[in-house]
Predict the 3D structure of the following.
Amino acid sequence: MNGWLIYNKNDAEHNKAYINWFLEEAHLQNIALRLILREDLTIGILDSKDTIMLHGEPVSLPDFAVIRTIEPLLSRQLESFGVAVYNPADTAAICNNKASTHFYLSRLSIPMPDTLFISGKTGLPESPPLAFPFVIKGAYGRGGKEVSLVKNTQDWHDQQRKQAMGDLIVQSAANIQPGKDVRVFVIGQEVIGAVLRENKHDFRANYKLGGTASWYTLKPYEMALIKQIYEQFAFGMAGIDFLLDHDGRFVFNEIEDVVGSRTLSAVSDINIVEKYIAYIKSGNSSSS
């Protein structure tokens, strides 16, 4: 069995340790896994046929691909050749758009903040669309980037002057504990573990922004909520993020399709990459 681990060049530079971990664990499970830089791939239509080339030349495609870039079209192109993609294109397309994720899950009556979708073509409205405080997020933002807390009229005017490009969501923060969230790590339909992230100096709890992490023991009602979500998707590995209201109850926030595991590794001895590769191996074995 052979696979591709696809990164763009910049992310590969910043994630060398994780990439080496992935390659080593694959080797231990008798899988030939190869790092592929997205910049070296050419995808498209040539002579009316789907085409994938590496370094401008035809290439033998792998049994599976773990895509660590956010590009659903690349996933679809690989899938069109019968390559098993993790996470699948449909999952990536929904989960990498915060507005689409909330729209998709709203039919399940999952607790979530009041959330408005703002088109990048129209920009922010003249008047605040929700009561203060609320958060403005880029629909495609990741890692706490493109996120702003609006606490008053002055903040609102500042955001209007910035007029961030692209689609946005505006989300109520009225009953949300600032600087705190829980990330739940899922492989397939198995919960691997959960981490409480806290930041006393920022309303964003992200570990990369100076937050701390600790192991979080999930309650039965929380497990039931998580199950509702993962049953809707074909996950390989993903992170499901929950905010906490003032009573400490889960409020759905977002799904990380290309999820890192730095926090889980920091608070536990779980080898999530080993588990992920075993999951990929079992799936490809059953389909071959």
Summary: The chain has a mean pLDDT of 93.
